[in-house]
Design a protein that fits this description.
This protein is mainly α and 104 residues long. The protein has a domain at 26-91: SP0561-like (Orthogonal Bundle), CATH 1.10.3910.10. The chain has helices at 35-41, 46-51, 67-74, 78-91.
Length: 104
């Protein structure tokens, strides 16, 4: 027996979902940026979280927590954490930055 949910014709969905790819730069790292987005785009910043004893790297909740929220949870001054993450972005070698390659 097939379940028919309201609004469903029973046919497989053809709707495609996609996650918007962000390009993270030092200036776009803000306190309201999701940690997962930051780690995905600039893996070199992981060392900041590890050095501070934060368990954000690999955490399932990092998709939802912002830098501001993580700082509050760990009792870290948010502005200082933000500055360290921005600095780590500058130190990351280009091979560790997931930025789109130029077209052409």
């Amino acid at each position: 027996m097939q379940a028919n949910w309201p609004g469903s014709s029973g046919e497989p969905s053809t709707r495609k979902t996609r996650r918007t790819r962000l390009t993270i730069t030092m200036t776009t790292i803000t306190l309201d940026l999701a940690i997962d987005d930051l780690l995905t785009q600039t893996p070199g910043v992981a060392e900041v979280f590890v050095r501070r004893g934060m368990l954000c790297v690999g955490c399932d909740i990092s998709r939802f927590h912002t830098i501001r929220e993580a700082a509050a949870i760990y009792g870290i001054e948010a502005g200082q954490l933000l500055a360290e993450l921005r600095e780590a972005t500058l130190r990351s070698p280009p091979s560790q930055r997931n930025t789109p390659s130029p077209v052409g």
